[in-house]
Design brief:
The structure is a homodimer. Helices cover 41% and strands 18% of the residues of chain A. Chain A is of the alpha/beta class. The first copy, chain A, has a six-stranded parallel sheet, with helices on both faces. Chain A has a six-stranded mixed sheet with strand order 7-6-8-9-10-12, with helices on both faces. Strand 2 of chain A pairs antiparallel with strand 2 of chain B, so a sheet runs across the interface. The first copy, chain A, binds a DNA duplex through helix 2.
Chain lengths: 306, 306
DNA sequence: CTGTTAGCGCGTTCAA
DNA sequence: TTGAACGCGCTAACAG
């Protein structure tokens, strides 16, 4: 107590750097995201940061710009720093995950988030996109749409596979025929999306509704359709993923969105990392891989002006 | 060379933690922002992160959610970590800057960014909002608008003072009368903005153009005007600040925006911090405070659909 | 030029 | 219960 009193008097402050060094802990977790300026990811990091704050942890940020090389370099940086845990949303072209192997060797947990590799022996937090797509299809079928198109993402993305899978399963579950031609991929650029939309419109059985990979893609698709004088959500109804907050200010936005709760997903990811950090203290021999699937929710875009 | 060879063989890797400890450097800079999910800030951090990467530095992120208490706590965290430098965009209600004083004592440079305190002895990177507002006023005057309203931000914000100042100066420079009543504040919430818009519309000399604090506020103002059956950019023209990328997808958005180049501003802020870090090595007796003002640019919102 | 050592600030351990 | 000493991994200073 004498020490404590004196410590306060001299306003002594422990040197965190020394503690980090000695404890072999940095009290920070790394987060690697493709693009911070996308609403989904900025909401996610917001959730991660808030949860980290609650655990008195800091967040080290890296942005891959969807570039595998940059992603590798950031991972390197995070390893050097080093972080106690890592949350990663992989770049859209990343197919090699070796640059995350070192973390396993160093006993630093890596948790994949949203954009997850299609692997078994990893920790992950993501949305159940298959179920989400089923929700979308059911919504459209319930609204008497018979021909449903889909503008999907790049085929190698796990998220694209899940959407396709959900689409097919939902149709079959409702005793409808699943037509391959109604699913067209986009590379997520405006041009790619326009091309995809053009393909759908050129089909003999032109769709009366389209499920789109995400809201950004939806806006491009809608823009293209309007240029072709198609009445949005009348001639063709759009349903999308993500639910951008700004959609409520738009006159022509998807009728409904599959909400993925990025903020909550981020919180969940961070919470999971912290639980892994704590459990890794114990001498658990076998690693139990956390695969957390969060449910999506179909929400109508409530237009403020109608 | 023998050592180097052996080091490679054993694939020895230096322990960054020990280096940090010994060198008293963490090779990371802290960034405190009010809200990451706002497009402006997410673009800014993108620029900061990219610049930091070039210097092999990491970015430690904190989000104040415009809460002074939270801001304080994050600053505390950053100090403990500790970071080598700090970039801060202050919360909108922060009026006390004492929680940043400790950094000065620790010889850790603090650079204020965009939301800057109205003080002399600080480093800062921000936009010249006064000049930006002059651009906006001139644009409107050139387009034959005689009565120009302004929905400003909270009056104690430096950014609000600058806009007001710019408005007044621009009018006087063009030999027009500056009418106080045409400047109404909003607390930046939707309700506050609607109230402000209502005030403007109730004036005897109703404005034919309105300069709005930022694009988010503009969208609320426009929404309110539309509900009153006012034709946007016909009955009343809107000019705003920030230039949200999604505006190009909207049918009713401000006619023009004062672009603030958040990404470049972020890069600039980071570059400035690094120059401060290097210069603080030398035994410079007197601190030269960096006050960097970046110029804005008026851009027309090019509608893709017209 | 090469090899050795002190010491950074903490927590832990061991001795008193 | 209290206090002294050690060692984490590195770099800088110093000695050979």
């Amino acid at each position: 107590m004498k020490v404590k009193k004196l410590a306060l008097e001299l306003n002594y402050e422990p040197n965190q750097r020394a503690i980090s060094f000695q404890q072999k802990k940095s009290f920070s977790i790394g987060v690697i995201l493709p693009e911070l300026s996308e609403a989904f990811f900025s909401a996610a990091i917001s959730g991660i940061e808030d949860m980290a704050g609650k655990h008195n942890y800091s967040v080290l940020l890296g942005q891959s710009h969807d570039d595998e090389k940059r992603e590798k370099q950031i991972a390197e940086n995070m390893k050097k720093h080093p972080v106690d845990g890592l949350i990663v949303s992989i770049a859209k072209n990343t197919e090699n995950y070796q640059h995350f192997d070192i973390f396993k060797r160093l006993n630093i947990p890596v948790l994949f988030f949203d954009r997850i590799p299609n692997l078994e022996d990893i920790h992950s937090v993501s949305c159940n996109m298959e179920a989400g797509t089923v929700q979308a299809v059911n919504f459209l079928l319930d609204n008497k749409h018979l021909v449903i198109g889909m503008i999907n993402g790049p085929e190698k993305l796990f998220a694209s596979q899940q959407r396709r899978e959900g689409y097919a399963k939902a149709m079959i579950a409702r005793n409808k025929q699943f037509d391959q031609e109604l699913v067209v991929p986009s590379d997520l650029t405006k041009e790619g999306t326009q091309l995809a939309m053009a393909k759908l419109l050129a089909l003999p059985n032109k769709p009366t509704a389209v499920i789109v990979f995400n809201d950004y893609v939806a806006l491009d698709a809608i823009q293209y359709a309007r240029q072709k004088n198609i009445r949005i959500n009348e001639d063709i109804t759009f349903v999308s993923f993500a639910n951008l907050p700004l959609c409520s200010y738009m006159d022509f936005a998807p009728l409904a969105s599959i909400e993925q709760f990025p903020y909550e997903q981020g919180q969940n990811a961070a919470a999971t990392i912290f639980s892994l950090l704590n459990s890794s203290h114990q001498t658990t021999e076998t690693i139990v891989y956390q695969t957390i699937r969060m449910e999506t929710k179909l929400v109508l875009n409530n237009k403020v002006i109608d």
